């Protein structure tokens, strides 16, 4: 399970937001079997991408703070 989650994280890291939105735009209706509004597809895509960006920025801040205390 850990390797699967690691692979998922590595794949998501390299994908731009526009591709995530595009994939969700076509993938979610196929999975749910119905038509979904645009906000339902854009919101999860943006959440995934910006969560990754937030983690990267937080790690950068932590690294800078650790260097300043040394």
UniProtKB/TrEMBL annotation:
Query: Where would you find the membrane-spanning parts of this chain?
Result: 7-28
Keyword terms of this UniProt record = Membrane, Transmembrane, Transmembrane helix
- Please give the name of this protein: Glutamate transport membrane-spanning protein
> Could you tell me the superkingdom of the organism this chain comes from?
Bacteria
